[in-house]
Every structure is written in structure tokens, then in C-alpha cells.
Amino acid sequence: MRSSYKARRGTSLAAAALSFALVAPLAQPVAFAQEAPAAVAGAEAAADTQGKNKMVPNAIYTKGGWRDFGGYHGYAYINKDGRADDLSSNNEPLKGNVIYLQYVTGKGEVSPTFYTTTDSEGRFSFDLRRGVTDKVGAPAFHLAGASNFRVRVWGENPDPEKYSVVMAGDMESGRYTTRTYRTQESWNFTAGPSGSRITNGRFVLEEKPNHVGWLAKPESEWTRALDGETGKPTVDGQFPDYGNYGSIKSAAVPNQSQVWWENGEDAGSLPGYYKYQPGQGDRAAGGVEIIASYLNDEVARELDAWKEANPGYTVEQERANQERIITEYQKEHGEGSHIAETVVVPSKANGKIYLPFKGTYGVSRTQENQTAQLRNKLEEGDFGKVAKTFETETGASRYGA
Any signal peptide, and if so, which residues (predicted)? Predict the structure, then answer.
């Protein structure tokens, strides 16, 4: 915005980063019926693992050595930042968590459901060599020469109220993958004892949005699109197009920031994010409420000051500090006072999003007016306040920003 205009800003959220893949297959799969679990010699479940396989009580326990041939290996963790597939040191390993596996041979023979538990680093390994599968009457886990061999992996969610499963097995939870239809698993289908190994599997959880309760204002203070004549919410809930500045807006391909039902990914796709691919069965999801908020300047400055005073902080330390500062601020100023705005809009029928913020007055949260600004300076007390309207107040455009 030019220096001759009253400085007003929106948020630093990048519209292209906002997309929601409502992954229908993440509903955990139902296992094929099987007899009571047979004991596998040398692989009986330890006392502390018995009874943990609640989703499939009759699953067969087996545990292999890390990256042994004739098995399946992967990582289980709670994703704390960045991409769901990365192995960041900030991730929290899932320890002692139950992971399930089932496979179908190229001849169409279906295995019973096996389960194992993760180690202290969140790693899991299934021993599926003949010595294991023969004892329980399961078909051989041989990848060589079986191009249609399929495997699926899923797991127990330790706290469904708090966490969502965002990735399991190759990418989609419970979805069968093959040697040619996969994104991140590594298949070794060499014949003989030095083969039939799948590595780089996943079981990844993420915290559900706002389960902590302080990422938005109380619902009574949410801003919705209102009819200019009646003052009531608009029929479709959509805002007029106030421009790009200070808004969250769907971007075009390849960013594809929108809301959709996820059903599949192209083989060989990058596993870092889901893509909207109607050719794979994805469908746009309209009417899904998007709730977006940002902090007021005072709280943001407190968080900045803590970061500056604590170099080398961890994600968990930052999170604990955020909660402490926000809790103390709300005690003094009231519930939701730490949030500048909470705006709500439903996704459009095509899954696209347009959510505008009014923005707060000031060049930044630390600068009131632009350098050498002579006109349209902020009135005393306006710095950091939420603007009165979505429209600009001095004729400046929100479109080119």
C-alpha cells in the first residue's frame, strides 16, 4: 500500500498453503474374517502388547528385525511440523503402538491380518518369512514374479479425540499398494532370501484442528458474510470479492489449495502432499466450513520476544510457551481476546475457498506508520486495532497486493 494511504495489513498466511484433503479412505479398514490367532513360534506377543490390538482382536502377532528381508518396515510418529512424510527430529515417535498388515498374493490369496508393535524409536517391522506364514496357514509373502501382489497397512489411533490418521502404509490408510502403484514405499522384489522386503512405510498422526480450544474466538464472535440489507448471514455464506490482500484464496494448479475428498494418488507422486486428481476419483467438497484466525499484535509481540530470548528452542517448548502466554492474556483480557479475528466461510461447490480478513492497522506489528509518511497517519490508539470494514478506507486497492 502506498505511503500516502493509511497503513492496514492482513495476515501473513499464504493462500497457496491452505488446502484440505478430506481423505475418505482414512476410515480404518475392516479385516477379513479369520480364525482365532495361531501362535507363531518365537513371536508370541509380549505381555505388555497383549490386548492392544483392539481393532482386530484376532490378528496374529509377529515381529521382525529392523529392515530384515522377508518383511515390511516403517516409521510411526506424530507429525509436529512440515510435511507428513518427513522424518523430522521434531516428530514424536509412537512407542509401543499397534500396526496391522494384510496382503493379497498375485493369485488372489488373502492373508490373515498380522500385527506388530513399534519400538522406542517408533519403528515397526513385520517378520513375514515362510517360517512365520507357514505356521499360520498364510500364503507366502513372496514379491518376486507377482506384479499384482498387494499390501495394506494401518494402525491403532491412541487418542481419536485428539489425533487424525493422515498417512498409513504407503500414503492412504488401509489402501492396498502394489510395486507399481505406490508413492514412497520401497519394494525389493528380488527372488530368494535377499528379497521380498518393503521399507519406508508410514503410520502418521496429526493433532486435530483446535483441539486445544484457543486457536479461535468463541463461536459467538466469529465473523460470517452478512447480507448488506438484512444484516443476516448470506444464503451461501460467501463473501464478496474484496481482492487478494489480507485474504485466504484458492490458488491455481499446481498448488490446488481447495477442499476435496481424497481417493487416490498417481503412482510415483511426491508423498509430501496430497493432490486434487479427479482422474483418481477425487471429488470437490463444497459446504465445508473453513475457520481461520490470527493473533493480535500484542500477543504476537510477546511470542516474538520469547523466541528472541530462547534461541534453539524446540517445537514443544514453543508450543508450551504459546499456551502459557495465551492463557495468561485471556485471564487478564477475557476469553478469545488474544485473537484479532476469526472468520468463517464454507468452501464453494467446486471446493475453492475465499476468506477475507479486515486486517489490523499498522505497517507491521512493530511499526505504526510507514517511514516518512506525512498523510493518512493512524489516529492515536488505532495501531493494532482490527479495521472497521473489509473495504479499504482510502481508495487503495486490495487486488494488486
Answer: 1-33
d(CA 190, CA 300): 55
Alpha-carbon gap, residue 294 to 139, rounded angstroms: 54
Helix (H) or strand (E) holding 201: strand 197-207
**Domain definitions of the chain by residue range:** 8-21+210-296+338-361, 31-207
C-alpha cell at 354: 475465499
- In the chain, what are the helix, strand and coil shares in percent, each to the nearest 5? 15, 25, 65
| Beta strand 71-78 pairing with 123-127 | antiparallel
Q: Helical H runs in 244-313?
A: 297-309
Closest CA to 133 of 41, 52, 69, 45: 41
Q: Considering only CA atoms, which of 122, 28, 41 is closest in space to residue 74? A: 122
Tens of pLDDT, residue by residue over 53-88, are 889 999 999 999 999 999 999 999 999 888 888 899
Whole-angstrom Cα Rg for the chain: 26
Of the candidates 398, 386, 221, the one whose C-alpha atom is nearest the C-alpha of residue 298 is 386
Query: Strands 92-93 and 247-249: what pairing?
Result: unpaired
Would you state the pLDDT for residue 17? 35
105 vs 64: CA distance, rounded Å: 20
Phi and psi at residue 186, to the nearest 5°: -110, 115
Cβ pair 263, 24 in contact under 8 A: yes
φ, ψ for residue 65, nearest 5 deg: -80, 150
Report, as an integer, the average pLDDT of 298-326.
Answer: 94
| Identity at 10, one-letter amino acid code | G
Higher pLDDT, 357 or 366: 357
Question: Which grid cell is 9?
Answer: 495489513
From CA 379, how far away is CA 392, in angstroms rounded? 16
pLDDT surpassing 70 at residue 182: yes
